[in-house]
Amino acid sequence: MKRVSIIGSGGAGKSTLARRMGEILELPVIHLDSRFWRPGWTETPTEEWRQIVEDLVKPDRWIIDGNFGGTMEIRLEASDTVIYLDYPPFVCLRRAIKRWITHWNKTRPDMGEGCPEKMDSEFLRWVWMFPTETKPNIEKRLLNLNQKTRLVRLTSPRATGKFLNSLRSAKN
């Protein structure tokens, strides 16, 4: 694993998993949220964002976390491993709410500068509806992965913990 994409619902723990894997595998970690969001939660323009992502996947070693459907193919094609956090929505909602409380009025380390943690009905709805509205599109994209690309689907925090433990064991 040298080029890893981590995808999944908001609140699933993509950034946390990326950090932990980065430490274990000694790979640089790129949080897409920190690159996409500008101060005041301003989005990066589409064409500029596409170029940024194309540049991010050029190096030989990285872990990138985040969905961003408009550039997902770029990352999936460049990855040797795709980790899909396929958790139930109640798990993701609980984690998103905990994250909001923990980082209340602060900017998370994996978020763009000037973007303090926020919670709104649009985000909560997206997390809750992820299995029916977003997941089918992601799964369609995963069917088109290069045959050499490894897909790791983790369906619970417990499975993710076991996966991390297996990485630690393999490293030793």
Describe it for me?
With 172 residues, the protein is of the alpha/beta class. It has a single domain, classed as P-loop containing nucleotide triphosphate hydrolases (Rossmann fold, 3-Layer(aba) Sandwich), CATH 3.40.50. 51% of the residues lie in helices and 16% in strands. The protein contains seven helices and seven strands, in the order βαβαββαβαβααβα. The strands form two sheets. A five-stranded parallel β-sheet has the order 2-5-1-6-7, with helices on both faces. α5 crosses α6 (121-143). The relative contact order is 0.21. The mean pLDDT is 94.
Q: What key attributes describe this structure?
A:
5-stranded parallel β-sheet; Rossmann fold; two-stranded antiparallel ribbon; alpha/beta; globular; 51% helix; 7 strands; 172 residues
Helix and strand layout, with pairings?
Blueprint lengths: L2 E6 L5 H12 L3 E3 H5 E2 L3 E2 L2 H11 L5 E4 L6 H7 L2 E5 L3 H14 L18 H23 L6 E5 L2 H15 L1
Parallel strand pairs: 1-5, 1-6, 2-5, 6-7
Antiparallel strand pairs: 3-4
Helix pairs in contact: 1-7, 5-6
Q: Return the domain count.
A: 1
What portion of the residues fall into strands of 2 or more residues? Answer: 15-25%
Low-confidence blocks of residues: none
The structural class is alpha/beta
SSE succession: EHEHEEHEHEHHEH
Strand order of the largest sheet: 2-5-1-6-7
Question: Radius of gyration from the CA trace?
Answer: 15 Å
Estimate the mean pLDDT confidence. 94
Per the CATH scheme, the topology name is Rossmann fold
Total E-strand runs: 7
Count of helical stretches? 7
In the CATH hierarchy, what is the superfamily? P-loop containing nucleotide triphosphate hydrolases
**Secondary-structure arrangement, i.e. CATH architecture:** 3-Layer(aba) Sandwich
